[in-house]
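Intended use. Records like the one below are meant for learning the mapping from a protein sequence to its folded structure. Do not use them to infer anything beyond what is encoded.
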Amino acid sequence: MFSSLRQVAALFLVFAAVSTQALELHATRTSPTDLSLTGLLTGVPAGESRYVRWADLAQLPSTKLKLTGEFVPGEQEVTVVFLTELWKSLPLGAGADTLLATCTDGYASVYRATFIASHRPFLILAINGQGPEKWPPPGLKFNPGPYVISVSADVAPAVAQLLDAGHKKPWGVSDLRVARYADAFAGLSTGSRAALSAPAIAGREIWVHSCASCHAGPPATFGGTKSDRPFDVLAAHARYNPTYFKRYIRDPKGFAPSAKMEPHPHYSDAQLDALIAFLAPEPRS
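Structure written out for the chain above:
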């Protein structure tokens, strides 16, 4: 970890003074470490992908961080590019305000431009001096590549206040999509969810920044594919069996030892009630 936030602030000032060059976008993937880019990119037709080489990413302003327990027990030195720098290097289309990350196992994570600025997420290019072609690092039984995105409270104190910081630390990141937040999550604000109560709006935020990592939402929404539980099934549990719904979220393996979902024992009743209010909103008169 950094010894003081003063060191971090000094590093930010140094790198802020370095202009970020535009990344070269390639039409074809030539290596497993090429990062796929899609979405609102000027000059890229809708539906097409472009690719960024590891060597191109390494040319962006970068720094080294000391992280403890990020991959294996103990301290590791990682070489990173902050998403602020990546964002500045992309040919962003009109209205782009969100970066959507998808992983090789179907996991996903959401980074709005405001979050990128306030929480300072970073793309990990090397672990202890070794790039992804030499991963996994010793002691790790599976490969976290081709890329990892992470956050640290030592870099941005606001990270400590996140409900689920782990959902902003995806491993196996292979694809980034540039999007408008309103378009990517349009399905969460239509139909029965067009006029949500204040608790349900809070529950929607929990869904976007936590649940959507593994669960696909209704049509016209971004979400991960790691879970095989459809949105409508989750909504039915929330509406008709809220006690079971809460207990399962807090301790899924207590119900099914083979459950893939991680436990969330830190969720308060108020937070779970908000999530239920979003998934199963009460009809408005």
